[in-house]
Amino acid sequence: MYIARQPIFNKTLNIYGYELLYRAETYSRSFANASSVAATASVIGGLFEQGIEKVVESVKAFVNFDYEFLMSDLVELIPPETLVIEVLETVKIDERLLDRIKELQHKGYKIALDDFENDMYSARALPMVDIIKYDILITPLDTIKSEVKEAISNNKIVLAEKIETEKDFLKAKEMGFHLFQGYFFCKPNVIIPPSKRAVSSPTAYAQIFQEVKKNGFSYNEIAKIISSDVKLSYQLVKISGNIKGTNHFSSIKDVLVRMGGKEIERWACIFMLQELAAGKPDELLRLSLVRSKFSEVIAGKCDFSEKKDELSMLCLFSLIDAILDEPMEQALLDLPISQEIINGLLYGTGIYQPVCKLIRCYEEGDWETVLNYAKNINLDPEVLSVSYLEAISWANQIMASYA
Questions:
Q1: How high is the pLDDT of residue 114?
Q2: pTM
Q3: Residue 247 class from Cβ within 10 Å (0-12 exposed, 13-18 middle, 19+ buried)?
Q4: How confident is the model at residue 277 (pLDDT cuts 50, 70, 90)?
Q5: Shared-domain flag, residues 169 and 226
Q6: Cα–Cα distance, 380 to 311 (Å, whole number)
Q7: Which of 8, 101, 186, 234 sits between 20 and 30 A of 64, alpha carbons compared?
Q8: Beta bridge partners of 161
Q9: Is the CB of residue 146 less than 8 Å from the CB of residue 120?
């Protein structure tokens, strides 16, 4: 089973929900040995057993269903306060389905019509759905102004999908769209003008990075750097509660010794990103954290086991251009990181390319390409879903510690 998620934002760029992308059978392009109901049920059942809150936390889960699965009782495994049922654009709208939609709505489920095109088949379901999704690559914004206006007047929630640029986001927002899906928030110069960006001095972090890189680095020296910054000291002590086998520490140095050089470097990076990301969508930092942990976990299970720390840092900085609203080349200036990390971030090349590509394809639900990259790095595809959920759980813990 594969499971990935894509964020859905409201107008203020807070997370409204996640669309869940899934695939039941790892090695089959289609469900050759099982009906679509059985295949989808295996995914939904797996989510139910593991706890869907591990994937979407406390927000909505948008899930695509085909005709057969919509007609089954298995849809109701996920409670209505969590699930938004997406009716696929390929689903035949008939009286039986319309009756089923009514039944599900009476049970409290929200219904979304996916990739809506105003044809005679989809139009039949319009009065009954709560959310209408427009794929702006299929139906460009300029061509649907009147439809969107009418939908809003009929109290429908309208969602713009495949929003990839700030221009598209602002235009859709101006048209009245309520929700927005796409990776527009991952790009520099998005939404928050540079003048409103939080200004942060990286001096303490740079000093920590430089000290950790030394052979035989000094814990005393790093403790001195951190102790001179009250906020940084507080953050360090707060996360020290997650270190196993200890109830308390008597000094900053005690915390550092228990963590070790690699963990100190990792946490310094996370603290720096968290500070720099002030005023930006929370999802930027959350996605950076998920990518970082995901890469570390899967690297430990394939050809890159000895490079997992460097891969983790590369992925942690994968959105630094969007966080700083600067070109990647400028954002990386004066950072004491290896040339391989720089090559990966700037050019998408180098030895880490297969892992980075795998992660991006996994996020997009491009399962066939994921399989190819997994094979190239000797990674068992069966570990991907568990590793991804582990990364989400870890990122959630980190984000909660900042709340």
A1: 87
A2: 0.82
A3: exposed
A4: confident
A5: no
A6: 18
A7: 186
A8: 135, 181
A9: no
